[in-house]
Amino acid sequence: MQRLFHAKIQFQSWVLLIAVLFVFAYSAWHKQPIILLLSLILMIVMIDRMIHTTYTISDTHLIIHTGKFSKDQLIPLENLIRLEKIRGIRLFGKSFNSFLLLTYQEEGIEKSQAVIPQNEDDFVKCLQKHKLGSTNADKL
Fold first, then answer.
1. Around 22, how many Cα atoms within 13 Å sit in the side-chain half-sphere?
2. Do residues 67 and 54 lie in contact, with contact meaning Cβ atoms separated by under 8 Å?
3. Exposed e or buried b for every residue in 102-134, given b needs 16+ CB within 10 A?
C-alpha cells in the first residue's frame, strides 16, 4: 500500500518567489533580456518544485519526488536510522521554518534528507507503521 504526502510550502519559499518575480518585472521594464530569461527559468523551476514535491511511502521505500525537472530519490525504509523534527527561530511562540530530518544509511555512509510534509504527524505515524517489521523501528 502506498501513501502520498504533499510538501508544505514554507514562508521563505514565498518570499524568494516574490523576490524573483520583482527581478523578472524589473528586467522586463528595463528591457534586459538575459536577466529576464534567467529569472523566468528560475521562477518556472521554483514553482514546479513548490507545487509538485511529494513524498510517497510504499511498503519498502520512501520516494521523494521534487518536480518534473529532477530525478526521484528512493530511500529504502530498512535503511532509515533516525527521524528528528527540527525547528527554526521562534517568533511570538510560532516557528516559521520547521522540517523533519531523515537520517539513513546508503552504502555504509550516513546521509541526511530534509522533508517538509503538510501533515507531519501522519507522515511520522506512517513511517513508524512501515518500520514495525524492522529491528530499529523504535528509533524512529
1. 5
2. no
3. bebeeeeeeeeeebbbeebeebeebbeebbeee
pTM of the predicted model, to two decimals? Answer: 0.80
- Which three cell numbers, joined as nine digits, stand for 127? 513511517
Question: In angstroms, how far is the first alpha carbon of the chain from the final one?
Answer: 20
Q: Cell numbers of 32, please? A: 534586459
110-115 mean pLDDT: 92
Tell me the sheet residues that pair with 101.
84, 114
> For position 140, what pLDDT does the model report?
52
Contact 68, 52 (CB under 8 A): yes
Torsion 38-69-47-77 (CA) sign: negative
- pLDDT at res. 14: 92
Beta-carbon contacts of 63 under 8 Å, excluding residues fewer than 6 positions away, are 55, 56, 57, 72, 73, 74, 75
For the chain, how are helix, strand and coil distributed in percent, rounded to 5?
40, 35, 25
